Amino acid sequence: MTSGRRSPFTTRLDRPVLRRALAEEGVVVLRDVLRPSLRDRFSEIARCARVAAQPRDLIMPGFETPRRMSTIGGREIRRRLPELAAFYDDDQLLGELSALVGRRLYRATHADECIVMNFLNGSGQTHGWHVDDPDFALVIVVETPPPERGGTVELIRSFDRDALFRGSLETFDEKEELYLQSGDLYFLHASQILHRVTPLRDAHGERIAINFAFDTKPIQVYGDTASILYGEAATC
Ligand SMILES: O=C(O)CCC(=O)C(=O)O
Ligand SMILES: [Fe+2]
């Protein structure tokens, strides 16, 4: 549908260096890659939208980790923020991300989880440890505090799901931190790598991220967590 349209990116994503990094690390940080006009527009949209975000404060069943944050789910985004939906629906984006992964990707079919906005506001707000149902996440970090103020992305590559379900997260010492600045994107193999956003340390701290979800299968079976965090379950 988008042939002839401008790429959302300033550079091609299927460069060998990025492909290799994603294959080896399960994540790539994409700095200065989103066209500045889009980056600024998304930032403006996110800042306006935050008043409409739903506050959440719960322990997510499964890994039993906290969600102290505000959210806007895909259904609401499709209704009210068509520019984000257009970015997600762009076949050129899908093609570039598929090339980066080295296999065909599909947009997530979960109406709430396909595109989500996550807002952390103030001390203690956090998006606790989890894996995503969709396989890959393209995350735009609209706003993030300096790392010493919290709100950093931490990753655990290899983990024992059973141990996690028994609630032994504290035993992990193999955490890695992603170094991110406001305006960065990252692309994460989110169904395989355990990840979280650490609690903000500052009463006035703020973090905003937009997550666009992609699957390796056209139809995916989703659990309940997205509906708990982002709204009701349905199909995009
Ligand atoms: O905010 C982030 O950087 C991560 C978002 C995330 O993990 C998610 O939406 O599933
Ligand atoms: Fe996630």
Question: What secondary-structure arrangement, pairings included, does this model have?
Answer:
Layout: H1 16-25, E1 27-30, H2 36-49, E2 54-60, E3 65-72, H3 74-80, H4 82-89, H5 91-101, E4 106-107, E5 115-121, E6 126-130, E7 136-143, E8 153-156, H6 161-165, E9 176-178, E10 185-188, E11 194-197, E12 206-215, H7 225-230
The structure holds 2-oxoglutaric acid and fe (ii) ion.
2-oxoglutaric acid binds near residues 118, 132, 137, 195 and 197.
Report on this structure.
This protein is of the alpha+beta class and 236 residues long. The chain has a single domain (16-50, 60-217), classed as q2cbj1_9rhob like domain (Jelly Rolls), CATH 2.60.120.620. Helices cover 26% and strands 28% of the residues. The protein has helices at 16-25, 36-49, 74-80, 82-89, 91-101, 161-165, 225-230, and strands at residues 27-30, 54-60, 65-72, 106-107, 115-121, 126-130, 136-143, 153-156, 176-178, 185-188, 194-197, 206-215. Strands 1, 2, 3, 4, 5, 6, 7, 8, 9, 10, 11 and 12 form a 12-stranded antiparallel β-sheet that branches. The longest helix has 14 residues, at 36-49. The relative contact order is 0.23. The mean pLDDT is 90. Residues 130, 132, 137, 190, 195 line the site of fe (ii) ion.
